[in-house]
Amino acid sequence: MSDLKAIYIHVPFCRRKCKYCSFISYQSREDDIPAYLDAVKNELFLRSEDTVINTVYFGRGTPSLLTSEQISSLMSTIKNNFNTENGSEITMETNPGTIDLTYLSKIKAAGINRLSIGVQSF
User: Fold this and answer.
1) pLDDT tens-digit map of 69-103
2) CATH code, domain carrying 107
3) Is residue 33 exposed (0-12), middle (13-18) or buried (19+ Cβ within 10 Å)?
């Protein structure tokens, strides 16, 4: 087994583009999400290896635009193709306008155990 590694999943979709943001992201392109996620899952499969992953980070755009089912599917792909530890930190950037208690419960069940809510959300 090789050294500890992390997985970063870039989610380039936003409801609106923040004026200060220099990250690659796309406003109001939710119809493109399923095809994008298929590409991400294919990339994860191609890079699968017996490596301990201790951190997974869903970031940039607004990852909480993804449905809980999409998050669950991505997490299943990660868990099926990499060695994730029980104590792995799995973070997702969120926007308060895109989450509720039901959503949070579902993504927690999928494996998300840490949220990041930026100051730009308020």
Assistant:
1) 999 999 999 999 998 877 889 999 998 888 999 99
2) 3.40.50
3) middle
